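From the shared-data thread, chain only:
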Amino acid sequence: MKAHFTCLFHYDNFCNKLIIDLLLSTGLTGKPVDLMSHTLVAQQIWLSRCLFRPSPTAELWAPGKIENLTAANNKNFQEWVTYIDTLQPADFDTVFNYKNTKGIPFSDPLVDIITHVINHGTHHRAQIGQLLKAAGAELPSTDYIHYIRNHKTSILSTQ
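Structure, as tokens:
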């Protein structure tokens, strides 16, 4: 499971870079940047929960700053992959008790939390893609299977 989730974070990082680069090259601001920023802040919040750290001070739905996206994405990727590397197989079944940003308590197993983090990014990249497409941008392929077909060998060599 560790290798699978590490691969998914490589995919997430790769796709985030594609979208961030496209945002930078088109100069598009507003909602697409806000959605990307939200995605990255959410990744930080979830990782903080998993590491039993206080939540980041960044607001979940604050307006994003395009100049901060690349560094935030790189940091999130490194921290998530490092965290996953510390896990043992049984750790993925660990149930985390936490409160969401509205203060509502929840309990979820780590396997579901990590799966959510990856799916959350895919969901918001699709929203950003629609906004970019409407603005006339040509979208790169961010399909998981396309990524695996073209990059799995390079992922395995880094593990």
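The CA atoms of residues 11 and 103 lie 31 Å apart.
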